[in-house]
Design brief:
374 residues; mainly alpha; two-stranded antiparallel sheet; 2 strands; 2% strand
Length: 374
């Protein structure tokens, strides 16, 4: 009993120390983790190109994948900049509309004189809020440069991984075991990234068509935001449903089909936009996504939600984006040892995380054919 208590105590202390290190070093670890996942995305894309088009060699496929990912990223940044500029060109119209909605809210609550948007922005609270946003934006811009540098060095260092692995694990059985563990972790993360990208693209495309049909201004910009938000599990889809709704609520010009007039038309329009966007989030999130994600990741929905909260506290917004793939990685690693396999079982959706199990004869770890699809 004393030995078991000591082991539990060591686990608790080690976990606390690890979380503290991750939190204190978040400015280093979070960009590096993002770089690793971006690197895996490029490598996975290159592998698909090589399999579908064997005429391209390994290096040509990798170059094409890098160029396509960087081009897509550049187009997304340009789209965001264009959208912000378009909203900025209508700033006075949006401000007048927002002031009217604020006045309606104060009147509904029987409150005294309603403040204007300018007064809200330039008071002490508003200045602190926008200063925080400005600092976060500056940090993000710096992190993007660091992430791209990390990705470049990951590609340069890739060729040396195999010789290092041979020297770290001179015994053939151990080396093969470690290689299979690394392959399982890579495959799990790649599956998540690819399936989430497909799901986000599907939701984004259908939402874009819906926003265009409803007459929402700057629909492409809003759809781009939805694409990014859908990478955040659970909370991202909720926020993605409200972002177009808020923009529709303050849209200066209402489409001709919207019933009512004045502010009533804005409320009707926002309601229709919310229902249209939420429909795709609900349908795909409840019928398509569970089939794809459940069969590939085998993660409990409760675990996904808890990991979102935990990694969000540790690494902020990057942690929220990385919460699911990081949890997949932890489940794969915990499933490789008989002493930590119980953690992997708790993390999994069906209690069968696969991986390694203990050999009853000698308690050594052996590779099994066990997978989540069984």
């Amino acid at each position: 009993m004393t030995v078991r208590s000591g082991v539990v105590g060591i686990w608790i202390i080690a976990t606390g120390v690890l979380i503290a290190l991750l939190y204190l070093g978040r400015s280093i670890f979070a960009p590096f983790a993002l770089a690793v996942f971006l690197f895996l995305t490029m490598e996975g894309f290159a592998r698909v190109i090589r399999e579908q088009l064997p005429v391209f060699g390994r290096y040509i496929s990798r170059l094409i994948a890098i160029l396509i990912v960087l081009l897509g990223f550049g187009l997304f940044v340009g789209l965001m900049a264009q959208g912000i500029a378009q909203f900025g060109g209508q700033a006075s119209d949006y401000e007048a509309k927002i002031n009217g909605l604020i006045a309606d809210g104060y009147g509904l609550l029987k409150m005294e004189r309603a403040p204007t948007l300018t007064e809200i922005i330039f008071n002490d609270t508003g200045q602190r809020f926008f200063a925080t946003i400005a600092n976060a934006t500056g940090d993000l811009s710096a992190d993007l440069v660091v992430i791209l540098i990390y990705v470049a060095f990951l590609f340069l260092a890739q060729s040396a991984w195999a010789p290092k692995l041979d020297r770290l694990f001179p015994v053939t059985e151990q080396r093969e075991q470690v290689r299979k563990v690394g392959e399982a972790a890579r495959r799990g993360i790649e599956i998540y990234l690819w399936t989430q990208t497909v799901i986000s693209a599907l939701i984004t495309g259908l939402t874009y068509v819906t926003l265009l049909a409803l007459g929402v201004e700057n629909a492409l910009f809003l759809s781009g935001l939805i694409f990014v938000l859908n990478y955040i599990p659970t909370i991202g889809s909720i926020v993605a449903a409200f972002v177009p709704t808020l923009f529709a609520l303050v849209q200066p010009d209402m489409p001709a089909w919207v019933p009512g007039s004045g502010d009533n038309a804005s409320y009707f329009f926002a309601l229709f936009v919310f229902l249209g966007v939420s429909f795709w989030q609900f349908m795909i999130g409840n019928f398509v996504q569970p089939r794809i994600m459940g069969e590939t990741l085998n993660l409990s929905a409760l675990v996904v939600l808890l990991s979102l909260a935990i990694w969000g506290v540790i690494w902020g917004i990057p942690g929220m984006f990385l919460s699911a793939p990081l949890t997949v990685l932890l489940m794969v690693l915990f499933s490789q040892s008989s002493s930590t396999r119980w953690i992997a079982i708790l993390l999994s959706a069906d209690g069968n995380p696969g991986g390694l199990v203990a050999n009853p004869a000698n308690d050594d770890l052996v590779i099994t054919a066990e997978t989540s699809e069984e």
